[in-house]
Amino acid sequence: MFQSSFKYYKSKNPPPSFKDVFVIEEGHPLLKPHPVELTPGANFPGLLPTNRWKVYELTTRPGLLLFSNPFTETGQRQWMMRCLHDYPLHPNTTNILDKPAGTDWWQTLRHLPDASARRSHAKTLRWTTLGYQYDWTNKVYDESRRQPFPSELAALVRYVASVLGYARFSPEAAIVNYYPTGTTLAGHTDHSEDDRSAPLFSFSFGQPAVFLIGGTSREEQPDAILLRSGDVLVMSGAVRLCYHAVPRVFTDAELPVGLERSAERWTGDESAEGSVEKRWSALEDEYLQQSRININVRQVLRENQQTLDSPGECN
């Protein structure tokens, strides 16, 4: 049943209906409001005040939290630029394994002369790993390939985790996925971390996608959720080990009327200061109009475990 749903939402001809897709900000009887810890004083940079966050738990999938874009426009642009400019750089690993030492994917794209060449080059980057580098062949993390986790991303995730009641969460690894429109992510489970009881945090930017969340078997009918730019998803508890997938990344033009304004989430008239706005250009917009970026952050080690080679508390 999981695969049939995957094929349904992947289809371009005929296109899928969105009538059974959960849209986070519209609310739904099965989306139960989830409490947040209101934070007095200064807000986290790039995020809305927590009293404006709309956080829900999908009652058919206990432990699956969804919240609609808690980012400001400037905040979205900030994280988009980090994913494009900074995270594909050494010592992080990318799928472009044969690139010469010192090659900068984004700088190469910037200097290409025409849009067609830029689109072709943009599609070459599909993922980069942060912190603990993931071994895609053996499906494990390797202590010898542990890199420093980006401090600014760690701060964001710790803040979000604490607001949602996961104050003990420790961000130690992340995979940043880069999806051209029309691409997919096959159904799978995430089970390589030593601590599989810790939640997984997922941040979406750019073009929209349908996300499927099922059960512990591919025989279970999944739920479909529309994720748009800035939306955050948290997999915790039993749902942490459930099958999930992205059957298709859509363009705004392919969505029903009223759901197609993704770019407004990062291109508003909001005034901003500092290096973020100085670095943003038409090239970032060009890339995001044809791509989706997803940052998913995990805790690899068990509590009080210092390395993969040392014991920690069992859950």
Automatic annotation (TrEMBL):
List, alphabetically, the InterPro entries matched: Alkb (IPR004574), AlkB-like (IPR027450), AlkB-like_sf (IPR037151), Oxoglu/Fe-dep_dioxygenase_dom (IPR005123)
Q: Which GO terms describe its cellular component?
A: cytoplasm; nucleus
Q: Which UniProt keywords apply?
A: Dioxygenase, Iron, Metal-binding, Oxidoreductase
What the entry lists under SUPFAM superfamilies is as follows: Clavaminate synthase-like (SSF51197)
Q: Name one Pfam family in it.
A: 2OG-FeII_Oxy_2
Name the residues that bind Fe cation. 188, 190, 244
Origin superkingdom = Eukaryota
Q: Name one GO biological process term.
A: oxidative RNA demethylation
Q: Where is the Fe2OG dioxygenase domain?
A: 170-295
Any one GO molecular-function label of the UniProt entry: broad specificity oxidative DNA demethylase activity
**How does the cofactor attach, per the note?**
Binds 1 Fe(2+) ion per subunit.
The cofactors named for this UniProt entry are: Fe(2+)
The name this protein goes by in its record: Fe2OG dioxygenase domain-containing protein
Species lineage:
Eukaryota, Metazoa, Ecdysozoa, Arthropoda, Hexapoda
